[in-house]
Write a structure and sequence with these properties.
There is one protein chain. By secondary structure, this protein is α+β, with helices and mostly antiparallel strands. The chain has 2 domains: 141 residues, no CATH class; 108 residues, no CATH class. The chain contains 12 helices and 11 strands. The strands form 4 sheets. Strands 1-2-8-5 form a 4-stranded antiparallel β-sheet, with helices on both faces. α1 runs antiparallel to α4.
């Protein structure tokens, strides 16, 4: 087997659902975008770190990019003080993917030599550009990478290896054609339909933001962390049967200290934000009496 086949075979055995490869390079096509960007409050604000893999791992030669899908469960009725968080992998995908990536990296070093580093979202490099260049999918109007095999409801993790593998996954070209489901479904108008996102209006961001204007607060609905509306209407995705795994009540968070919150929910992705922000979002959502449709 060729080196990339050895790696891909191991990655799939670890539970990843898609694997891609590309040569490491600076994302010059994104330089002007990030240099002019009005960064969100939780983003890494160093534009070079957003586009330059070598600023994270000098000497990197190859991206090994992995996709792991997660279910879009059907939403049960949200009556009374019931709220939900957006669809996600449980436990938190940062924890799941990091553990599997570390195991894959150890395997690669043992079998093929070299060095490497794992990446899962928080490092600041543009993950979607890495995935696109490595053949996992194409950019959709929801600005997510849409895989022909997984849809857009998958998490991205990757390795940067010092090895220079003699393989490049074919880049997937595609577009959403005349489909505007996500554009029409976005409650804040954050998706103009030109394959860009007005990030400051995205509900996923607003549920994580520390301070909200009255207008921003009015947009909150019963999804109190993240937003998956654009994914639920995408024809590349499918909705699973209903589940209460992502449904909570005000009481679940009401009396918790930050320490108790981390102990109880530290394995969930929403624990990234403090319990005060989650409680604020619940109060606003229930006050707005928002509703959603799939």
């Amino acid at each position: 087997m060729r080196p990339h086949e050895i790696i891909a075979d191991k990655a799939l055995s670890l539970g990843f659902h898609q694997v891609g490869f590309s040569r490491v390079a600076v994302f010059e096509n994104l330089r002007e975008i990030f240099e002019a960007r009005d960064f969100l409050e939780m983003e890494i604000k160093d534009s070079q770190k957003r586009i330059d893999p070598w600023s994270h791992f000098p000497g990197g030669g190859t991206f090994v990019v992995l996709g792991m899908s997660y279910p879009l469960y059907g939403i049960p009725p949200l009556h009374g003080d019931r709220v939900r968080v957006s669809a996600s992998l449980v436990p938190d995908y940062h924890l799941v993917l990091r553990e599997k990536l570390e195991e894959l990296l150890d395997f690669v070093i043992t079998e093929l030599g070299g060095e490497g580093r794992t990446f899962v979202d928080v490092e600041g490099l543009d993950d979607r550009q890495v995935a696109f260049r490595s053949g996992l999918g194409f950019y959709g109007k929801n600005t997510q990478i849409i895989s022909p095999y997984l849809g857009s409801n998958f998490n991205i993790g990757y390795l940067v290896l010092s090895l220079e593998l003699d393989y490049q996954s074919p880049v997937i070209t595609g577009d959403c054609r005349d489909c505007t489901r996500c554009v029409e479904a976005c409650p804040t108008g954050a998706l103009p339909g030109d394959y860009t996102l007005t990030a400051q209006k995205c509900l996923s961001y607003l549920t994580q933001k520390k301070d909200l204007s009255p207008q921003e607060a009015s947009w909150l609905n019963r999804c109190v962390y993240g937003c998956d509306i654009c994914q639920r209407v995408c024809p590349y995705n499918s909705i699973s049967s209903q589940s209460i795994e992502h449904v909570f009540t005000r009481e679940d968070f009401e009396a918790l200290s930050q320490r108790q919150y981390k102990k109880k929910y530290g394995h969930r992705d929403f624990s990234f934000r403090g319990v005060k922000i989650i409680r604020r979002n619940i109060d606003l959502a229930l006050g707005n009496s928002g509703s959603e449709t799939e």
